[in-house]
């Protein structure tokens, strides 16, 4: 870690550490830390790690104090067939984080997508699927025990209207699969912070309320949940980036339940090629997200979903869109965007960072919480602009608000644009 490196350098020079330590280098992470956060980080993936210029940028801890494996800790990679565990790719990312002195956000244990067909189509009964779920979680969390700052335990369990997404776990076990997953993860690594992670929960609304209900549900079962990850796959100028107060109001609704929040998969896409006006707006939007997190003590950190457009998932999934990240396809910083992000974190004072917020575990909730109901298939209602309107497994409304069209992003996701 940087402070250790500084100490070693100072020691080598025969200097004594002053109470106000200089920062080794100025960057997004050092500024986030100076603002009281634990980290600013980036997702990465195994295929990119042969690109040495890319790895050098990722390993620059002035900018990135944390990394998240994009795919290699997901169920289809880890347990492709029942009882066969494959940690090779996940280990590569975990080892890179350790070598660089970066925190690791481990992602993700229970998700309906990238789930092997032996799970989805196995026809398991409730007790058997619970044992499969627990076995998967126990095995994987034990393998990475002590290495994960956070675990995204359950990912994307909600529909846009805040009801539970139907998937094999929900259909077979019911909502109990969520607290069962958290309890299994907590038992396997008591020191990892356990997160629920989802998209379109960055602004107040039905889905954000649904995520708050998941926090209450897990606590009502007596299981531990430490935080909620707001993915923040945003669109230039759209919901989720409009105002700092919108961010803080929504984040405070979660922290009031006794959990931390983190921005876990931030990118802000636009039509490509990006216009100058779009880049200007994008710089503002990134700054708004940072200011929102900065203003909430229990917003512990922020992760962008890779740092360069060269390896962004956006163009392959949202046709005609991209340019979503602060570094361009040639690994160059986009000056306007990067500078806006740096300014938003603040110039920093060079003082020792304030204590990071502790993820205190409040007493489990004693109030009984009504679990969100499942939406009836293709239930009525209109999907707002940017909302999900279709995709495999989608049971929510499909009618887009006037002036927008339901547009396919990929097989799993269509959106009103
Ligand atoms: C499955 O079993 C669990 C644990 O006993 C229980 O909480 C849950 O309600 C059951 N689900 C169904 C659909 O019966």
Automatic annotation (TrEMBL):
* Chain ranges of the CBM1 domain: 381-417
Q: Does the keyword Repressor apply?
A: no
Query: GH10 domain: from which residue to which, for each copy?
Result: 29-344
Q: Which residues form the active site?
A: 265 (nucleophile)
First and last residue of the signal peptide = 1-17
Give the domain of life: Eukaryota
Q: Which Gene3D superfamilies match?
A: Glycosidases (3.20.20.80)
Q: Which reaction equation describes what this protein catalyses?
A: Endohydrolysis of (1->4)-beta-D-xylosidic linkages in xylans
List the biased-composition ranges (Low complexity): 350-381
Protein's pathway: Glycan degradation; xylan degradation
Q: What is its EC number?
A: 3.2.1.8
- Region (Disordered) spans which residues? 349-381
Per the UniProt record, one Pfam family is Glyco_hydro_10
GO molecular function terms here? Answer: cellulose binding; endo-1,4-beta-xylanase activity
Q: Which InterPro entries match?
A: CBD (IPR000254), CBD_sf (IPR035971), GH (IPR017853), GH10 (IPR044846), GH10_AS (IPR031158), GH10_dom (IPR001000)
Localization in the cell: Secreted
Keywords (alphabetical) are: Carbohydrate metabolism, Glycosidase, Hydrolase, Polysaccharide degradation, Secreted, Signal, Xylan degradation
Signal keyword on record: yes
Q: Identify the GO cellular component terms for this protein.
A: extracellular region
Family to which the UniProt record says this protein belongs: Belongs to the glycosyl hydrolase 10 (cellulase F) family.
- PANTHER family documented for this protein: ENDO-1,4-BETA-XYLANASE, GLYCOSYL HYDROLASE
| Protein name as it appears in the record | Beta-xylanase
């Amino acid at each position: 870690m940087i402070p250790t490196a500084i100490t070693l350098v100072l020691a080598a020079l025969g200097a004594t550490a002053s109470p106000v330590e200089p920062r080794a280098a100025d960057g997004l992470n050092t500024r986030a830390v100076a603002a009281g956060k634990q980290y600013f980080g980036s997702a990465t993936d195994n295929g990119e790690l042969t690109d040495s210029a890319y790895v050098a940028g990722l390993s620059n801890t002035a900018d990135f104090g944390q990394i998240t494996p994009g795919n290699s800790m997901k169920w289809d990679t880890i347990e492709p067939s029942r009882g066969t565990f494959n940690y090779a790719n996940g280990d590569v990312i975990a080892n890179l984080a350790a070598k660089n002195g970066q925190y690791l956000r481990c992602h993700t244990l229970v998700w309906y997508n990238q789930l092997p067909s032996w799970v989805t189509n196995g026809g398991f009964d409730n007790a058997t699927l619970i044992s499969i779920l627990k076995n998967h979680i126990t095995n994987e969390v034990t393998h990475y025990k002590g290495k994960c700052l956070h675990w995204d335990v359950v990912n994307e369990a909600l529909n846009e209207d805040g009801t539970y997404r139907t998937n094999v776990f929900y259909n077979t076990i019911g909502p109990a699969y969520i607290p069962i997953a958290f309890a299994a993860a907590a038992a396997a690594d008591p020191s990892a912070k356990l997160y629920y992670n989802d998209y379109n929960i960055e602004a107040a609304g039905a889905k954000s309320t649904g995520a708050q209900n998941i926090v209450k549900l897990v606590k009502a079962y007596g299981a531990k949940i430490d935080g909620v990850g707001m993915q923040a796959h945003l669109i230039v100028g759209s919901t989720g980036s409009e105002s700092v107060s919108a961010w803080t109001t929504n984040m405070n609704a979660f922290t009031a339940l006794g959990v931390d929040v983190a921005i876990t998969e931030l990118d802000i896409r636009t039509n490509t090629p990006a216009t100058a006006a779009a880049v200007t707006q994008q710089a503002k939007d990134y700054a708004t997200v940072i200011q929102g997190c900065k203003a909430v003590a229990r917003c512990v950190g922020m992760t962008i979903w890779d740092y360069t457009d060269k390896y962004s998932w956006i163009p392959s999934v949202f046709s005609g869109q991209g340019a979503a990240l602060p570094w361009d396809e040639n690994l160059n910083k986009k000056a306007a965007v990067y500078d806006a992000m740096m300014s938003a974190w603040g110039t920093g004072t060079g003082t020792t960072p304030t204590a990071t917020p502790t993820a205190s575990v409040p007493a489990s909730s004693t109030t009984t919480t009504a679990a969100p109901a499942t939406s009836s298939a293709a239930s009525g209602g209109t999907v707002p602009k940017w909302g999900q309107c279709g995709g495999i497994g989608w049971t929510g409304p499909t009618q887009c608000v006037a002036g927008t069209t339901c547009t396919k992003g990929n097989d799993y996701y269509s959106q009103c644009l």
